């Protein structure tokens, strides 16, 4: 393998690794946002109806009552 081919191969490898890091970062950010949204939703429901009301509503939703 000559020097030019080696540089091209290294550049492609670096580019692929950079793209992988970017995609992984985007996935982690979206998972964090979804997690924050879930916690906020649960907290609002608990404050609005109280913990027992939240449990009652959950069982009502699961059983269809």
- What is the string of helix and strand elements? H
Computed CA radius of gyration, to the nearest angstrom? 24 Å
Number of strands: 0
Uncertain runs are: none
The main β sheet shows up as: none
Q: Which class do the helix and strand fractions yield?
A: mainly alpha
Number of helical elements: 1
Mean pLDDT: 84
Distance between the termini: 71 Å
Helix content: over 70%
Which percent band covers the strand fraction? under 5%
Overall, the morphology is rod-shaped
Mind sketching the topology for me?
Elements: H1 3-63
Would you give an account of this structure?
The longest helix has 61 residues. Helix content is 94%, strand content 0%. With 65 residues, it is mostly helical. It has one helix and no strands.
Question: Any key phrases for this structure?
Answer:
65 residues, mainly alpha, 94% helix
Quick take:
Helices cover 94% and strands 0% of the residues.
């Amino acid at each position: 393998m000559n020097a030019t081919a080696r540089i091209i191969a290294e550049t492609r490898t670096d580019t692929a690794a950079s793209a992988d890091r970017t995609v992984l970062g985007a996935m982690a950010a979206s998972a964090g946002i979804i997690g924050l949204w879930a916690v906020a939703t649960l907290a609002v429901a608990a404050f609005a109806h109280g913990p027992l009301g939240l449990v009652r509503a959950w069982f009502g939703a699961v059983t269809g009552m």
